[in-house]
Amino acid sequence: MRRFVVKRMLTIMQVALKKLFAIMPFLFGIGFIAPLIAQVMALWGWEAPFGMERIVFGLVIGAAWGLYATIRGRWI
Amino acid sequence: MTDHYTIHPRVGEAEGVDFDVGPADDDGAVALAPDTKPSGDAPAIPLRAPAELDKHTRVELLKEERKIAAKYHGGPMWGYVAATWGGYAIWLALFPLTMLDLVPMWIAFPLATFIATAGYIPAHEAMHDNIARPGSKHRWVNEWVGKVATIPIVFPFSLARLMHLQHHYHCNDPVKDPDYPDEAPGFWAAWYKTWYNRQPGVDGTINTYKRVVAEMGTPEAAKALKDTIMVQLLYMAVLFTMAWTGYAIEAALVWWLPRHIALSYVRFYLSWVPHHPREGRTSRYEQTKVFKSKIGHFLSMCMETHAVHHLYPGIPNHRTKAAYYELKPILEKRGVDCSAL
Fold this sequence. Notes:
The structure holds two protein chains of two kinds. Chain A contains three helices and no strands. By secondary structure, chain A is an all-alpha fold. Chain A has one domain (about 25-75). In chain A, helix 2 runs antiparallel to helix 3. The model of chain A has no long low-confidence stretch (mean pLDDT about 95). Chain B is mainly α. Chain B folds into two domains: about 1-35 and about 50-70 and about 285-340, no CATH class; about 80-275, no CATH class. Chain B is globular, with a radius of gyration of 21 Å. Classes of the chains: A mainly alpha, B mainly alpha. The interface of A and B includes residues 34 and 43 of A.
């Protein structure tokens, strides 16, 4: 019984990891690119368009770019 | 599928030497020891006779070649160890130093890029057990050089070693050589390919590695896959945490961008340049080419004489050039184009 539970948990973890890696470009877009855009803009004194906060602008770009990379399979 | 891949190096114990003797000579027809059998998938009757040289000459040349090669094996390797661990300590220190504005980014970024790139060389030595061989007292040093040196490029040592050895065992085989996707028709295409092959949905390097590891199906392959997942998750966790706590630029210029530059540089100089063109060049003396680098031997990571490395992977990287010059007359007789150096 215990062996079965462990095996089942490993399978669930494997599936979860596969799904996580499948959407990794999107996560990278919001997890890294978004704050990077905001911080670079702040460093160079750039304001975000349409009165947005820099981080909101970063999230829009990062999420869209990450989503594109997730769907298309490449960043450019 | 394991038997599809070679698992161990071709150590020439049967031939009186205790080092890796590289790929079989041509079709396996030449062996120094009478009891050495060709591999299972070698043809019973050689399909292709090596040009001009008879078997006796080839055996004599091989003996001479190995005598020279033996001289260049070994030697002090502490420099690789010191450079790896020292470099890693500096790279690690760059995180707090840049976050506290104690080191400017214009120093940190090139330094991190250099450490990430150059780190592949000691890791490569460790992949071939050149720092300390299995069973030796200092074996752990070999393993920890490999593990540490590959952290900046987020390429776990277990996977790097497994894939690199498959590259040696099946060099330029379009299916079995995991580095075959690096092949490109020219200079700019090769640089582009180094980036393109890292794209998430492209059947490039990383997806080829995953396929090969899955096909191997050994415990080592399973471990390599597990290590890769762990290291990639840790890398992402560090980048995301740094980015959302206000240090995205530091994370980008100390780890993210240096890693990408290093991976491209390494793939270009270690994989594309010495092996291009790859198609059909699978025999012992054809797998690599000798070239003259415009940026010099050191900056091209000593790859001008990568041919020596493929013949004798146990010769340390810094000694391949000297070994090449001594081996040159033999290599020329074997049909290697040595005109570049």
